[in-house]
Amino acid sequence: MSSSSTPEVGATFVNIIETAPETQQQVIDILKEGTERVISRMPGFISVTLYAARDGRHVINLATWEHPEDVRNVQTDPESAAFAKRTAQIAEATPGLYTVVGRYR
Questions:
Q1: Where is the ABM domain (predicted)?
Q2: Is residue 29 one of the residues assigned to a domain?
Q3: Overall pTM surpassing 0.70 (yes/no)
Q4: CA geometry: angle at 55 spanning 53 and 57, to 5°?
C-alpha cells in the first residue's frame, strides 16, 4: 500500500444525498443530466463520480474542481440551482467542500 500526505490542489465537493430506495434511480438520473448538461461545462470542472448505496438509501456525488471558487460559482448558477431544486423535491442533500488529507492505493 502506498500513501501520499502531499496536500491536494483544487477542491473536492461531496454531496451525500439521502433518498428512498424507490426514488434513488430518479436522483441518479437528475444528477447525471445536470452533470452532462450544466456542471461539466462550468469553468474549473475536472470530474464527477456518482456512487449509489446498494440499499437504495443514499447517493454520493463527488466532484473535483480546480479551485474552491469554482464550486461557489456552480452553487450560485441558476441552471445548476434548478437541478439542485429537482433533487431536493425527492431527497435530502448534505453538500460540503472538502480537502483531501490522505490517499492510499
A1: 11-101
A2: yes
A3: yes
A4: 70
